[in-house]
Amino acid sequence: MKQTQLERNIEAYFSSCDATRERITKKSGEVVEWQQPYTLFGLCAATGLSVEQVYAFRDGQGKPKKNCAAIQRALFRIAAYILEHALTGELNWQVAIASIKDMGLVPEGESFESGMLTITMDDASTEAGI
Questions:
Q1: How is residue 63 annotated by DSSP?
Q2: What are the C-alpha distances in Å from 127 to residues 71, 93, 121, 122?
Q3: Phi and psi for 81 in degrees, rounded to 5?
Q4: I want to staple 20 with a disulfide (CB 3.0 to 4.6 A). Which of 36, 67, 121, 130 is the partner?
Q5: Which helix (H) or strand (E) is 33 found in, with range?
Q6: Could you report the per-residue pLDDT of 14-34, keeping only the tens digit for each?
Q7: Segments of the chain scoring below 50 in pLDDT
Q8: How many Cα neighbours within 13 Å face the side chain of 118?
Q9: Confidence at residue 115, expressed as pLDDT on a 0 to 100 scale
Q10: Which residue from 111, 118, 104, 110 is spatially nearest to 56, judged by alpha carbons?
Q11: Are 40 and 25 in contact (CB under 8 A)?
Q12: Residues 40/54, Cβ–Cβ less than 8 Å
């Protein structure tokens, strides 16, 4: 299947983030790995889309429809990255939840003040090709 320019730009964005992985020695002597994080705004910069345009594709309103699925997959990839880093303690869970909520990937009315998050996989993930 032929990739669209948008799909190529999205993959280039994730590849460029992954290519920044490096080992850094802190002043304390501790060695840590660092990588440029996946973010919504980084995705926007890489694709030339505004946040509003990304949200339109997320909601299935953009054309071609193939681009909607590409953006949905990219947002799920960013969300997975954020959640995985929160689960390993590399990212504060409040920041993670706020970021995912900002991307519109948390159902309206959900409250996470307790620090608990339930992830339910449904047809939306299948439609996005995940």
A1: S
A2: 12, 27, 11, 9
A3: -60, -45
A4: 36
A5: strand 31-34
A6: 999 999 988 888 888 888 888
A7: 125-130
A8: 5
A9: 55
A10: 104
A11: no
A12: yes
Closest to 85 (Cα-Cα) out of 128, 23, 26, 35: 35
Q: Measuring CA to CA, which residue among 115, 106, 82, 110 is closest to residue 96?
A: 82
State both tokens at 99: 């970021």
Report pLDDT digits (tens) over 115-126: 555 555 555 544
CB 48 within 8 A of CB 65: no
Question: Are 80 and 125 in contact, with CB atoms under 8 Å apart?
Answer: no
- How far, in whole angstroms, is CA 7 from its chain's centroid? 15
Long-range CB contacts for residues 99-107, cutoff 8 Å, separation at least 24? 99/39, 99/40, 102/40, 103/40, 103/58, 103/75, 103/78, 103/79, 104/55, 104/58, 104/59, 105/75, 105/76, 105/79
Query: Which sign does the torsion angle of CA 71, 103, 11, 89 carry?
Result: negative
Tokens 């299948």 identify what position?
126
Task: Record the pTM.
Answer: 0.74
Report the Cα 1 to chain-centroid distance in Å.
24
